[in-house]
Amino acid sequence: MQSIFRSDDIIEQKFRELGNRAEGVLVAYLMGHDPDPKAFFANAVSLIEGGADILEVGIPFSDPVADGPVIQAAGTRALSAGATPRKILDTIGELSSQFAIPFVILSYYNPILAMGIEQFMRNASEKGVNGIVVPDLPMEEGDKFRDMALKHNIDSIYLAAPNTSAKRLLSIVEKSTGFVYLVSLYGVTGPRDTLSPQALDTVKKVKSIAKGRIPVSAGFGISQPQHVSALLRAGADGAIIGSVLVRTVAEHLNDPGEAPYYLTKTITALKQASKQRTG
Amino acid sequence: MEPLKALADAYRIFSRDPSFKKELANWLEQYAGRPTPLYFAGQLTSHAHGAKIYLKREDLLHGGAHKINNTLGQALLAKKMGKRRIIAETGAGQHGVATAMACAALGLNAEIFMGSEDIERQKLNVFRMKMLGAKVHPVDSGSKTLKDAINEALRDWVTNVEDTYYLLGSVVGPHPYPTMVRDFQSVIGKEARRQILRQEGKLPNAVVACVGGGSNSIGIFHSFLNDPEVNLYGVEAGGHDMSPGKHAAPLVAGREGVLHGMMTYVLQNAEGQIETTQSISAGLDYPAVGPEHSYLMSIQRTKYVTQTDSDAVDAFKQLSQLEGIMPALEPAHAISYATKLAKTLERENSIIVNLSGRGDKDVDTIAKHFPQ
Question: To the nearest 10°, the Cα dihedral for A231, A236, A241, A244?
């Protein structure tokens, strides 16, 4: 199946397009094939139709050190249902043939290595993947990986944390394509009631170093519409929502057919907030 | 990355600082009980009918295992770095106990992550940690053993990075841990090399040590790396059998992968998911191994073999009855292999086995294997 996205610039185009309307980009995360392929597909569609600007899909890993309990449990569910990188990429292929939005993969490094980096990138590119985030691959070790991603028109997205030094931030800004994934707190993924004390300062710091050369999206611990608007007001170009959506999936394991309704409701409210940058 | 850089920088400075080295040497001598003896196991040697078997008695250290060599070094470093909250993972509980001891002695606060399965099979060590003032956090994720305890410690560290020092217990994880822990454990090999030259007048034919993460083995191997006549054997846990999930032998049966911030041999399935492991010894129950072992194997300087759970139990019994020494189940794997190796060598040869810990913690497990 041919992807409808062939440009190397598809993610940044999305940021430019929305930025021109003074609107933030909403990145919605789901664990691939959680709790099973069919329910995942329906949930993903509900998020896209509900207003997600980019869909980020997790590849499950047995040892997800950057994730809190919500996403850990999702990975365990997906693996129990027989999820593999290939099968999840196939589902992304189906989604990308129907919906004209960018798709990003989040995977730990070992499942990619196990498939072979080049094989993984070729497959991902064919299925319409536009960007990739690998939380346990530091930029310092990532050059070969990045070259391979770019060769296959996939953006290599690096993470920046509140304690990342200015010097390292500069390299992250230079080496990332698509966007910089800003970790808004000290810790792992998971919904928090309030934004971390570091969140807004980190956004300002990273934006000042990015100097508009690359969009900056903030993730980790972001669950409420007011978090999204606060981050955007501080200068972020987008917000990444994960655990709160995955938790909704987890709350409807006995009635998976109802999850899309609640996901749509949540994403609509978040999308509304991402339109109100000036307010 | 920033905390790892800060740690590497601090370690680089202090490891060259004569006053830091002197302070650590004092703690090792007066608190931990170094040097440990190199004991000629005469009865075991007679029984094996071959090369002389020497035991490097790390089991006699304070706490009952080699782990204290590393925890004193890192706890001192943490103190110099101004960190007062110390977190650590533990499998068998020996590293947790050694961390709790070093922290109590140096006035630091210890919190230990331990898989709930390991808590169940190492109750004595859990009790010891608590008595020593450490907080023990049970880990219920994944396989509920050592790898999951490391995952949880890493998650805690990124959350509390500003005031917390992660005191990793083996030669695993991201740089600088494998190098730093090796350096702190290399005291074992430095002593053993001097002792065997004094006691035997020549280097041993072989050095044998068990390998889980690989700290006691790297610690004793390191001083012999430039002696090509000394064969170095690492003994991994053969567990029940060598089918997937039934052992813990990444060097013998794994392939290259990335786990816990290191590229090394890892037990994994075709999709890169980490395999569960099984071993009678909680301390060897880990699906990866220190990257330096992977390197040493790739240049063929070291050799890795396995011994099963029942081999370890037999060696535990044999050493207890022939020498009056109860080994921990981890080094019992090394004792088992060394005894077999000794049989194949001439009597004028010698073998050093790193007896990395004592077996008190394992008596419950062992009791199940013998009729009352």
Answer: -10
